[in-house]
User: Fold this.
Amino acid sequence: MNNDAKLEAKLNRKNIAINKLKSLGETIIEDVHQNKVPALRVPSRGTSNIVYDDIKRHYVLGDRYGKRSLGNVKQIKKIGQMVYTANFCKDLVAREKTATLRELYYISEGWDVDFGDQQESNIVGEDLEVTLGMTREDLGLMPEEDGASVYGKITLQEGDIEINALRAGKSGYTISPTIDEVEFVDHDVKRVIAVETMGMFHRMVQEEAYKKFDTLIVGLKGQAARATRRFLKRVNQELKLPVYICNDGDPWGFHIAMVIISGSAKLAHVNHDLATPDAKFLGVTASDIINYDLPTDPLKDIDVLRLKELSKDPRYQDENWQMEIKKMLKIGKKAEQQSFSKYGLEYVVDTYFPEKLEQLE
Amino acid sequence: MERQAGELFEEFQELTASEFFRKNKQMLGFSGKIRSLTIVFHELITNSFDAAEEAGILPEIKIDLQRLDKDHYVLKHSDNGPGIPEDYVTKVFCTMFAGSKFRNIQSRGQQGLGCSGCVLLSQMTTGKPAKVTSAYKENGKIKAVEMVLKMDVKTNQGLVLEKREVEADKTGVQIELHFKDVSYSLSEQGAYEYIRRTMIGNPHSKIIFRDPTGHKYIFKRASDVIPPLPKEVLPHPKGVTADDLIFMAKHTDKRRFRSLLTSSLSRMSTKRVNEIQEITGIDLNKRPKDMQWDEAERIVELFAKMDFMAPPTSGLIPIGKEQIEKGMIEILNPEFVASTTRKPVTYRGGVAFIIEAGIAYGGDSGRMVGEQRKAEIMRFANRVPLTFDQGSCAITEGLKSIDWKRYGIRDMDNAPITIFVNIVSTQVPYLSTGKQSVAPEPEILHEVRQTTMKIARQLQKYLRAKKAAKEEALRAKVFDTYVPVILKEAANLAETEVPDYQPVLEKVTRRAQAELLGEPVDEE
Assistant:
């Protein structure tokens, strides 16, 4: 893309957001002109309206709607909060600024229709997302936390600054919450490996895994933030890079990977922008625990419970997952990704990753 | 040492009524200090009411209660009734079983013990005589006499200690009595509460009461309608016993038993008498005095099996819906009141009665216990408050059996509610001689329930409407507050003018109201 095209795309995104927000107000005013009681239709985010789409391979919202009517005592405040928030977002987008959800909550104190707590304002933010079909990042609302760390041969542009993720210090480039504003300028990698812990991230940096495997190293820091998932989705789609995920060998590690792959139920309305269905879980699997004879901890009751839940989850219905879950339940053991250091610090990069990558590729 | 019967019977003596009650004063209701005083109030007030009403006068009573010492009181009670002729004063106040109420008639008192009982109690506890002033009309002029009386219990007659004529400008009776071993109390069983309740059952009366602290309570008249005098009705065959028949036979002037039956009992036709004669084989043409006990028994047994028309109800005078409500409003100042008077029905097959009930909510309804108002039951029999023996009473039992939750009252005990129930009958079936609780006859229980449930439904409706009005005000406020600001903000968002939203605001408010009242809401 040349610069003009990029600018146009960005302007487009901005204009779409502004127009969508404006039309929300127009719908209400139009209803008043027609002497109708204004009401907004907000796609329901209740569990019964979140369905797993087998073809898209992630969760999507069903077609049930909730109503926010000006004529209902319980809904009138919600519709008011939505209109005020929409106006706030429109102003943010127009001025090319962003605000965190916490800032939105505090700003609302000055409104005629305020929020009881931040939980309430977060929900209204989501209401706006699903109603307009846009991510809250599009609306100028940013999460608090930064995304993951990225290390490797990739150059990104944030505003006027170009960043080389190989020269951004040992901790790499930190994915900004405004990841959609970031452009991929250049790269020289063949794949992406995301790891759960920063411990593993630093191990891989030290062992120069980025060179050995021509890979970007992404340190997830636990459950992947929205910006991280958006980043992984974009490198997968725009740069056509395969994504591998390596986490602890327990149900929680499994699920961190699965949320990256198939999206979460809670964010069903934006999963099309966040899920990376082609991403692959590299390990640590129950089979790895056996095959590599890893040091383990026994499964706790809560681990067993969670594994059983996962086995019923539609995202885990593939044969491989079912087998791994059963196996872990059978051995009754779990292992951390750093447990490979039993065989020396280098083992994981020298032996484990090459073997696993070979299997998956 | 063996004693002969004759010796033993030397000590045998006859008791007069006065002497009997002197030894058994609890049978007059005089048991316990608080109760004794309440019963005194009851007897004097009832007599004054009856006298005034019979004379067609709206009753007005002044009561002054002074405490001389602990448990020692002086009671001055005066009314505006027709007065008592001089010759009858001692009979009224000093002779037991003297009175004009030994008939099958709806009345407050029934046994003629009342006034003389109070004099007896006074005399027994203090030894002091009673002072009575009676002003009455004689040949168109008012004559007044002041007497100091003592009761001679041995002879059941009054002794006049002093007597003098005094000046008076209107008729009425005043009595001054000393009491010991009694106690004035503000409790539910106390004299004050008795007056308060009396006023609810008798809204046509006025009572001015000065309590022992000197505080003067004026209970105003809520209605100017003197209740019509009840008429005497003949007993219904199903309500008489063999003894009643023998008693009638002894005191009749009829020549034949059959004519005694038709003239002394209601619903007794010649046809019926013939039937009785045919079935029992008893010759009903014989003289009443020749009626044998076993024959009377057989006749009464047959009565139970025969079908008679329900007893006449012309003798029953209920207080009436309007008067009950006036009384409750005057005394309780409630935010809601409802009442109803049922049609007469019978218990034990032959005794007619009417149940009427009222319910008051809010204001001074209910009884203050600590900081909180609790539900109270006011029981009445022929307008007279029943203060004691609440637990065993048919009225209490009937009310307790109602599922109040069904009427929107979740916690009945702690609700600001007064329930008034009056049973009207020529023969109220009291459980004991104290006449403080009504026997739980199935028909009475049923009527109490039905009557109260009917007005409870009205209360439920009121409470629901009140709640709805409160919510509606809240809702209207929500719309008034939010609709303008939201539409202003929406116009801002749409980058357009704020539209005229008045019609929409009205529509929204109207719809919310319809929703509240459970009416269909037109969906758009």
